[in-house]
């Protein structure tokens, strides 16, 4: 069954991401240990607090001038979880690639949301409007099916080995990608700084990458 929404989309405090400038750099991004070459994110209940194929009635349109939220046909609004903007921006600054791997049955709705939602760099009124989330992803695999297929295609498109991939997802069944060599961090309430810290720690331990390597942070 679909996860219940804890509050109406239009009032939930978890559906607007904070500007990247307000999120301290994740500690694991600034230590001397290696980092994955790519961070891959599920979408539903990982980057935003709903399933776009069951909780959203298209078409979507912007809900605010800054692009922090979108609204569906009934006026229900949603956006990214709080830490998403900062995590995406800081990861790109460290030279990591970003990917999306979603098995949603409404890929067109998911794509529309990613094209509309922006990643704010500073507080409202500070500098230009942030880039769209869509533009920050290096690879997107959004369609129904076994996520091992998604990762096979990510490997083919990026040329990266599975062992260089760290995946964040809210569904335990998708742990099957670890049979390929991918490290998956299971998240419960959306991706956060803390979840990324734990995920990077798991990736380092799983791959024996616990010592400093050549190059900046091993990336």
UniProtKB/TrEMBL annotation:
Residues 1-22 are annotated as: Disordered. One of its GO terms (molecular function) is acid phosphatase activity. Pfam families: Acid_PPase (PF12689). Transmembrane segments: none annotated. NCBIfam families: HAD-SF-IIIC, MDP-1. This is Acid phosphatase-domain-containing protein. It comes from Elsinoe ampelina.
């Amino acid at each position: 069954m679909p996860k219940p929404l804890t509050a109406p989309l239009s009032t939930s405090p978890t559906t607007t991401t904070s500007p990247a400038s307000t999120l301290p750099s994740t500690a694991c991004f600034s230590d001397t240990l290696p980092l994955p070459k790519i961070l891959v994110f599920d979408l539903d209940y990982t980057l935003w607090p709903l399933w776009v194929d069951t909780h959203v009635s298209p078409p979507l349109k912007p809900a605010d001038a800054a692009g922090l939220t979108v609204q569906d046909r009934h006026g229900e609004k949603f956006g990214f979880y709080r830490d998403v903007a900062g995590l995406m921006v800081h990861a790109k600054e460290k030279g990591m690639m970003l990917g999306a791997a979603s098995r949603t049955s409404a890929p067109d709705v998911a794509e529309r949301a990613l094209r509309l939602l922006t990643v704010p760099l500073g507080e409202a009124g500070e500098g230009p409007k942030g880039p769209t989330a869509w533009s920050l992803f290096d690879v997107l695999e959004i369609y129904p099916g076994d996520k091992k297929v998604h990762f096979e295609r990510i490997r083919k498109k990026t040329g990266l080995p599975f062992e260089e991939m760290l995946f964040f997802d809210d569904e335990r069944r998708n742990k099957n990608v670890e049979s390929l060599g991918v490290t998956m961090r299971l998240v419960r309430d959306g991706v956060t700084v803390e979840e990324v810290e734990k995920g990077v720690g798991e990736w380092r331990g799983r791959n024996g990458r616990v010592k400093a390597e050549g190059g900046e942070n091993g990336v």
